[in-house]
């Protein structure tokens, strides 16, 4: 296994195209993990015996099994950039819908919108993987993939720390369904 050199990572981050790409990845994964953590807190105790949390996690991860095979077809047909933009607009609309559903206290609408949000996210992830090959030289691909593969886990940790602290604040207490 080849270790990625620090100089290769540093040169990638200094590259304007990759830096913008990676920053968009950081923001995307931050919002994806924040969405899941906030929704888990919001649906807590809405159904008996942690059923809501189980259903929420199912609607978060099950779409990947169904959607991933079709994501490549969408990318081939419409192009990675167009698919990325479409998924981000769709995710933004569904995030607004999720906020409305939370305020309306409908756990079933939250679960449905979360499944749609997760489907859009899966398509985004597949399209994003294609895009990195278009903006990075072949010699930098291992370093680029290393950074982009570490990003989701880093954002989950960052969100866990941030939201764990914020959940104790009054601003997030109103979000319980």
Task: Provide a compact summary of the structure.
The protein is mainly alpha-helical and 177 residues long. It has helices spanning 6-14, 16-43, 51-78, 80-103, 107-135, 141-166, 170-173.
List keywords for this structure.
177 residues, mainly alpha, Growth Hormone, Chain: A, 84% helix, 0% strand
Textual characterization of the structure:
It is a single chain. The chain is mostly helical. The protein has a single domain (15-173), classed as MFS general substrate transporter like domains (Growth Hormone, Chain: A). Helices cover 84% and strands 0% of the residues. The protein contains 7 helices and no strands. The protein has helices at residues 6-14, 16-43, 51-78, 80-103, 107-135, 141-166, 170-173. Helix 3 runs parallel beside helix 5. It is globular. The mean pLDDT is 82.
Q: What do we call the CATH homologous superfamily?
A: MFS general substrate transporter like domains
Query: Spans of 5+ residues with little confidence (pLDDT < 50)?
Result: none
CATH class equals: Mainly Alpha
Computed over alpha carbons, the radius of gyration is 18 Å
- What is CATH's topology name? Growth Hormone, Chain: A
Helix-strand sequence: HHHHHHH
**pLDDT average, as an integer?**
82
Total domains: 1
Which percent bin holds the helix content? over 70%
Number of strands: 0
CATH architecture descriptor text: Up-down Bundle
Q: What gross morphology would you assign?
A: globular
Oligomer: single chain
């Amino acid at each position: 296994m080849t270790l990625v050199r620090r100089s290769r990572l540093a040169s990638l981050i200094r590259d304007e195209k990759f830096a913008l790409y990676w920053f968009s990845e950081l923001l995307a994964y931050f919002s994806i993990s924040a969405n899941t953590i906030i929704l888990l807190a919001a649906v807590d105790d809405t159904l008996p015996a942690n059923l809501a949390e189980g259903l929420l996690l199912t609607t978060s991860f099950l779409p990947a099994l169904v959607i991933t095979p079709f994501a490549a077809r969408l990318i081939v047909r419409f192009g990675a950039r167009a698919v990325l933009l479409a998924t981000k607009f769709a995710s933004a609309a569904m995030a607004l819908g999720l906020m409305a559903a939370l305020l309306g206290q409908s756990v079933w609408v939250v679960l449905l919108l979360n499944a749609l949000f997760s489907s859009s996210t899966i398509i985004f992830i597949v399209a994003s993987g294609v895009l990195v090959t278009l903006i990075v030289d072949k010699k930098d691909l291992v370093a680029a993939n290393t950074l982009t593969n570490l990003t989701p886990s880093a954002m989950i940790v960052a969100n866990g720390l941030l939201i764990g602290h914020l959940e104790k604040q009054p601003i997030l207490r109103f979000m319980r369904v």
